[in-house]
Amino acid sequence: MTHMPSFPITQRWPATQPEVLQLYSYPTPNGVKISIALEELGIPYEAHLVTLADSDVKSAEFLSLNPNNKIPAIIDPNGPDGAPLALFESGAILLYLAEKTGKLIGETAADKAHVTQWLMFQMGGVGPMFGQLGFFVKFAGTEIEDPRPRERYINEAKRILAVIEKQLDGQDWIAGLFFSIADIAIAPWIKALSFLGAEEMLGLSGLPNILDYVERFNQRPSVQIGSDVPIARPADR
């Protein structure tokens, strides 16, 4: 028994397959982390498009699932001890899915520690810094005349990319020789630099390890499918 009707979010985004995991998301770097992971893990799921408009993410129904009004969020009808589990924050969801399946997190306690380390690097560094970079080079922040905020985030993004470039020297994936949730967290944000128009200013063409890394990432079937889930209409983007 899944008890899905007990979640208010289902009043606005009803589940047609309440027996499978419900994903509430939008195809941003944070959003596609979860759809890619679900595809990689082979977990059946139903995706619901939650746009970034206040009418969606600040609706009472969505706030009932994530009080921080950010995508993604999930409801797993088959959570711990068979009870449904609602969860938000992309990093927490990735950890939950990896631990639930025993995949994408390595085989040893040391593996898990290293994967978690790089996952936290993305959550605390890559995402916030690249997001602020985008604000100042593409969105409303471009109107701010003071150059210091823009320069700060350009320099910080360059520093972070240098860390990633060095970490990838001699290895295919960020935590070592195996693909993990850390890669699912980091690579979409690197890919987003093209959308932000920031590749040239960050010197991405001079970072061969990162370029090869993104290419390997893009070749995975889970990435090719999950990168456009949920499907957003042009008017929603």
UniProtKB/TrEMBL annotation:
Domain of life: Bacteria
Family under the similarity heading: Belongs to the GST superfamily.
Location of the GST N-terminal domain: 18-105
Protein name (Swiss-Prot/TrEMBL): Glutathione S-transferase
Transmembrane segments: none
Keywords: Transferase
Domain GST C-terminal residues, every copy: 108-237
